[in-house]
Amino acid sequence: MVVADPTPQSAAALEYALSHAMLEQDELILFHIENPNSWKNTLSTFLRKPSFSSGVTAPNSVPEGASTDIDFLDQMKRACEIAQPKTPVRIEKTDMDGKDKAAVIISKSKALGIDLLIVGQRRSLSSAILG
Questions:
Q1: What pLDDT, on a 0 to 100 scale, did the predictor assign at position 79?
Q2: In Å, how far are 15, 58, 73, 80, 96 from 55, measured between CA atoms?
Q3: Which residues contact 11 (CB under 8 A, 6 or more apart)?
């Protein structure tokens, strides 16, 4: 399961999952926690994410007339289907319901019996350089 949101960190987590963590019989779950106040302003950030290691690239812009509401999930799913055509991909969404985001992720992981959870990480420049 990859925690999906419209950020470069989430796109990197998905890229990692597709290139390093998927086995032939696996199913990939894109899990999004809906919090309308947080992601609408960052959608364009995800759309500018350049490429996946398999040669799949994220779209550079939203097509004219297309809704930006949760379209990034469909785009991520399409990228997965291109990179790993035999791997089933499913989208799961839930609301925070006033809970901590980490608690929602852990709860959903347990409920679905997830074996591997991949979450993007925000890194400062110094930690990226120094490790």
A1: 94
A2: 11, 10, 19, 11, 34
A3: 46, 49, 52, 58, 76, 120
Residues composing the chain? 131
Condensed to tens digits (0 to 9), the pLDDT of residues 1-28 reads: 999 999 999 999 999 999 999 988 899 9
State percent of the chain over pLDDT 90.
55
Quick one: tokens of 82? 């291109």
Tokens of 112: 């679905």
The answer to whether 28 and 22 have CB atoms below 8 angstroms apart is yes
Query: What is the per-residue pLDDT for 125?
Result: 64
